[in-house]
Amino acid sequence: MTAPAPTGDAPAPDRWWFRPVPLARIAVFRVLVYLFIPVDVFLTTAWAKAHAHVPTEWYDPLLIGRLLPLPTPTTTVVLVVQWALLAAALAAATGRAPRLLGTAVFLLYAEWMVIAMSYGKVDHDRIAFLVALAVLPTIGRARLRDRRSSEAAGWAMAAVFVTIMLTYFLAAWAKIRFGGLDWPTGATLTRALVRRGTDLSEWTLDVPYLLAAAQWVMLALEFAAPLMLLVRSDRARIALAVFLLGFHVMVYAGVQIIFLPHCVAILSLLPWERLTARFAPPAPAPVHPDPVPRPSPAPA
């Protein structure tokens, strides 16, 4: 499902979900997503493999694990899922069989998350990345130098964008739901800095009211996250992505917490087709046939 590239930066509201997106952007983002999976398996969630060696009675599956007949994580199950996921992700990064391999990656990664999060710890930085894995196979083939635009790609990137927004908004809702006003008025950040602070952040403990004010600012920004959906031009989306990524880098520098899968999902906001266009061969010049020679007129 393709359509010409949009001529303006502000499409009609009823077209927001299907604003055409260049397929070259999808091709780059797809490679970034699939190549991140080995990083996640061996670094970010390397601890998930340890669940292969714990008693099976400790397994308390998430809701999806209770609704579906998913296998109990044994040593064999965990190792098979791990290596099958790695193989499928590397194969999908090549761009071949995008629907088949992309679907396999999504299903295997979802099972890897069930294995990781069914022992009492559930992270909230995975949902946008999971949605990206779910929607990428719906687009089909996309190449790095593909100059076409696609409404299917637009819908997929809009789904990821909305999920990124909901990650922040629902995080604020959870803070108030479970912590009440004690979250912004208490010593939330102070406790985090005492436990995980770094040389770059520990000085804030000595500044009166700074951390308390920062808690209110964080809560206000997260509740205001739906305003992100008003950002439409490529330039504004680049600024938004830089702001969000900068926020997560700052959090890591301060308390050594980084939401890597979520940061990868944020990369979907960037116009990667501009980068690939620099390396694309120039369009061939139109070839005009030589005019047919006419016989010169006969002398009178």
From TrEMBL:
Organism superkingdom: Bacteria
Q: Can you name a GO cellular component term?
A: endomembrane system
Sorted alphabetically, the keyword list is: Membrane, Transmembrane, Transmembrane helix
Alphabetical list of InterPro entries matching this protein: HTTM-like, HTTM_dom
Question: Locate the HTTM-like domain: which residues?
Answer: 18-264
Q: Does the keyword Transmembrane apply?
A: yes
Q: Which Pfam families match?
A: HTTM (PF05090)
Assign the protein's first listed, main location to one coarse class. Answer: membrane
User: Residue span of the signal peptide, if any?
Assistant: none
Q: Which residues cross the membrane?
A: 27-48, 68-93, 100-120, 126-144, 156-174, 209-231, 238-259
* Topological category with respect to the lipid bilayer: Multi-pass membrane protein
- Subcellular location, record wording: Endomembrane system
The protein, known as:
HTTM-like domain-containing protein
- Organism equals Blastococcus xanthinilyticus
